[in-house]
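Hi L.,

You mentioned the student needs an example of a multi-chain input paired with its predicted structure. This one should do, with 667 residues in total across all chains.
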Amino acid sequence: MNTRPRPKFKFRPARIATYAVLIAAAIFYLLPVYILLATSLKSYAEVNLATMWSLPGGIHLDSFLQAWNGDPSKGTLGLSNNFMNSIKLAIPATLLSAMLGSLNGYVLSKWKFRGANIVFPALLFGMFIPYQSVLIPLVQTMQGWGQMIKPWLETVIAWQAPVYLGWLKWLITTYTPAYGTIGGLVLIHVIYGIPITTLIFRNYYAEIPDELVEAGKIDGAGFTGIYRYILFPISMPAFVVVIIWQFQSVWNEFLFATVITNKAEVQPITVALNNLAGSFIVEWNVQMAGALMAALPTLLIFIVLGRYFMRGLLAGSLKG
Amino acid sequence: MRLRFNSDRLLAILFITPSIIAVLIFVYGFIGWTSLASLLKWDNIARIPGLKCCPLEGSLLPQVPQADPLLNNYIRLLTTDQRFQTDLRNTVVFTLCFIVACLAMGLILAILLDQKIKGEGIFRGIYLFPMAVSFIVTGVVWRWLLNPGNQSGAVGVNLLFEKLGLPFLKSAWYTNPDVWFISPSSTVGTFLGNIGLDFLTTAKFGIPLAILSVVLAATWQMSGYTMALYLAGLRGIPEELREAARVDGANELQIYRHIIMPLLQPITLSAVIILGHISLKIFDLVSAMTGPGPAFATDVPAYYMFDTVFRGNHFARGAAIAIILLLSVAVLVVPYLINSIRTEVHQ
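Structure written out for the whole complex:
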């Protein structure tokens, strides 16, 4: 792809102008990054709106630490807890989504049933809807369900778990899907992630020749056997694309998180950052450090695995 | 053997059933529920004291919503609700500016990057990385970059302009309450008045300047995506086509104008649809960056819906806004969806 000859410019000025435009554009994209890094790395003494563009004198983590730990004197909570919430949310939601998408894609590409041609587009539509159009019933349902299981959850919370079963108590209280729990958000992300994950896997499996599946059938493999021994082992590229995609959309999501998690202890970082930014008592440098913190995980993934990120964008180019 | 395959077929259906049911309930069922709610008179739930964000807590339909005159919520939104009408204007302005900016930026960068550029991968990465970041992060950062500052001095981009000796570029950005519209006394305005289109010469059909700051931030985030789409498209055009045109005596400009641009049209179409549905739904960015803005200059329907439901308890009105949003997105997306599935079947 890169070896084919491309038009050569005869004029040097045109060449220089090309680079000038590309570099100017790069500066535009990097400007916010510069200000984020420069601000986050300044010491308190250096932080001043009038000198916000100057380079930091050294590497200080003052703002970063204050955003992370909070400021007890002002009663502001740190983002550390919310950062962990986002991790607790994004990892299970991503893995469950990927598993579900893989199975759905497998069924829709290799076990086409009557009506599959209606089911697939009907699923796809779900990824374009503005989530405002499901928000009211969603909150009501999650609250209603939360009320129903409340006695049970309270029993678990009151339960004096022995030390070796502490993890079980934690698991139940964190991941029971309900209004105001991380588990509730996991459930929502898995459900509304079905369309995109199914799409990516279905398109991936559609490229795999049916003969492979037929051969498996002749060898006596059934539905689960074919998946387990033939398709799953060669699904890694699709899994990587879906996992990156889902992780970044769950990590970056705001609307569901803000209506489902009402307490600071369970809010993911996007909600906490938005609250931080809306607060007048939090300085701008702390807000910047918080923004950097919220951006870092997905940025790192983009830097390390950008190739797959691109593929996800283009493969699922149905979705933005 | 036959029986075996049938049981596998059953298993396959069994595996996909939970997903189908989940989507049926959480997408289609909930949309139906919202549609019903949008027909009711339902804003009479007492606010629960001490709750900042979510008044719904513990109040699952505490009072029976009453029936409303047919489509009353919609009629009110579309005829008398000033805020909603401002929102509609803002959405149209935002969508048009955002799409045009992303397409132009994306196309120019893709064409330039296609010229055997040294360090192409690095440029590509720089243009694309904002995609990986949350709209909330974008909003928070651009809120400070485009902060107009105060009497004690300029900040952000304004400060940068000052330092670069370009103080005339300074702007009030998202705090600018001005709306550009055709003045009724201007030549065009008088002409429009004469042909009975004088309603076009009001602020209702103007461009709120504040929202252009939000467009700037959104373009920063999404234009790399259009660049990637166009670049993939450019790389897909066989070199023979360009060679053939060159042999026929076409210069580079003509090749782009008559050969490459027409071939990129399908990409433009899908980019318009993707960007369009993002911009119609935009909520996070507005929420983190500006909120409703001066005189609702940066308010959008998605934000109004959230505000009116979760801060104002006007459930039915919020539901009606949500359904209007859904319909506008559906008009854009459904033909595209049907088309892409039809072409896939034909292949």
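You could point out the following to them. The first strand of chain B starts at residue 40 and ends at 41. Chain B touches chain A through 114 residues (CB under 8 Å).

Best wishes,
N.
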